[in-house]
Amino acid sequence: MKNKRKWISKAAVSLGLLTMFGGVALSAGSAVYAAPPTQNISGNAVSDNTSDRSITIWKYEINSASELGERGDGESLDPAVAPDLAGKKVMQDVNFEIIKVEAIGNANLTDPLQQVEGTHWQVVSSFTRQTGKTAADGSLTFDVGTGKAADGIYLVREITDTNGEYTYTDPTTGETGIKINKPMDPFFVHLPQTKRDDTSKLIYDVHVHPKNIVTDTELDKTVESGKGYSIKAGQDFQWEATTALPSGLLSIIDEPMTITGMHDPVTGLPAANLEITGPFPYELYADYFRITDDLNASLLLKDIVVQVTDDDGATWTDLTIGTHFEVEMNGSAVTAHPVANMTAGAAKEVMVSLKEVGMKKVTEDEDTHIRVIYETTVEEDFNGKITNKYDIDYLIPGQEPFSDTSDEPEYYNGGFDIKKTDKAGNDLSGAEFHIALTEDDAKAKKYLASDGNSYTLNDDGTSTPVLPTGVTYLTSTSNASGEAHFDGLKLDWFTDSNGNGKQEPSIPSEATWDEEDIQKDYWVVETKSPSGYELLKTPQKVTVTLTTHSNTDPEVTVVNEPETKLPFTGGTGTMLLVIIAIGAITIGTAAIAIDKKRRAV
After folding, report:
1. Cα(63)–Cα(72) distance, rounded to whole angstroms?
2. pTM to 2 decimals?
3. Any idea which architecture 218-408 has in CATH?
4. Phi–psi pair at 369, nearest 5 degrees
5. What dotted CATH number matches 412-560?
6. Residue 490: which residues within 8 A CB-CB, separation 6 or more?
7. Which of 125, 308, 464, 564 is most buried when burial is the number of CB atoms within 10 A of its CB?
8. Out of 56-65, 284-293, 501-510, 544-553, which region has the weakest mean confidence (pLDDT)?
9. Which residues neighbour 146 within 8 Å (Cβ) at sequence distance 6 or greater?
């Protein structure tokens, strides 16, 4: 059974800038914030020997670098009203450690990304390393001691969990083990810390807030909005690759900053930090955002459509090829519609890349999802199963290259073979067959056509209703080996529990069946027999599966009875008398004509 699957990947990444300020508690799993804590801020410029020293970390999610806000000052803020915090989600179970360090020589310890251990600083061995993880309100407090013995510089850094991975928990949903793409950059903290806006005061309990950008990318591949689909081969159908847009495709930067954790967009290897110095506002775009679908070679691609939505799919808006996105087919640029390849068996790797104009549009319009619709068909005689998935990859400044793969919805067609013989097993050619969807249809001469619909075949050869232009009845005529076959037939692949004829993956009972259960019944009618033989007269039921078309033995064997020899319509003696009479009349008529001619002479 294949239930609808949503492959969700989350990546949290620090941009290397710490917003250090006070944080406050909020109710676990709630968006209701408590009052900010009261800090121990002394007006005495000389550190005392009685106050407790501590560092409190508050961990929040943000969506892009533009939400980093200003640098913190070590003081607490009310997240219910602070512009940098209002509405932000906290991150639970993020692991941290602190160690006490001291400068080597005259080194200035301001940034662990610039000053390295062994050259600029060393560990103070008398302090025991402390570890912990953030609570449901996103907070973690390290109490480092009381009095002047606890004074000094501390290094705070994020560490892995017990499985050796950087992860966190969403306290609202309870989802655990969410992967953090890049851990927070380490930072130094002075205890006590000089108050930034009044350098005559000291802060004994410093509050810091390292923000992390979190991308929440959701991939969902469907075929005709379901996880399975079948239709008469040769008819059009579509695949949909729907992806939640990650945060950070465009960030508007308003002040100088350094973006760490940069990667080369070509090699994927770590690269130098990005220094943003203006002019401001500065538009920082993702290096790339790509959706790649290596379509099954049996599919015939007619075109693609790229759309976005900001209301969970109630309304979709088309993006413009060449303006908002660009396309490559098998590595070659396609600059206009149709994006097509109608050759069966040919490679069809389609890559859609958002351009900066497109990234700006989806950001400004607050679009949440993007989807690529692949308009396809297959050849009329296609049998079997087609599965298809797609990949996304993107690179946002300060993050590692990200990629993920969707699940694989399926498309099905089946066929079957007929063997036509006489009673002695001799092959018979020239027998014509139609097929129907039900036994009642077969009896009523309501036969299946190439468009997947059924039409009644009238005695005069017309149909009711009239066959659409280009549509023909599905027929097959036995060849010299007595073989006939039907291919590319629709199969049943799910339980239509609500009777609307459409698979709805959100309904558990409508999940795609196991492959061995996918099938459909058809009824075979012999509509023309070989010369000298009787019609079959009775519709034959056949169950078509994904494998019947390739079975060695035929699914239906039709044995014809020879025509019987009926009696002549008259007796032999009477016929002879008629022949003699006609001969006599002929001879008599000729004799009279000759005699008349002689007399005239």
Report:
1. 18
2. 0.76
3. Sandwich (2.60)
4. -135, 155
5. 2.60.40.10
6. 230, 231, 232, 413, 452, 520
7. 308
8. 56-65
9. 50, 51, 52, 53
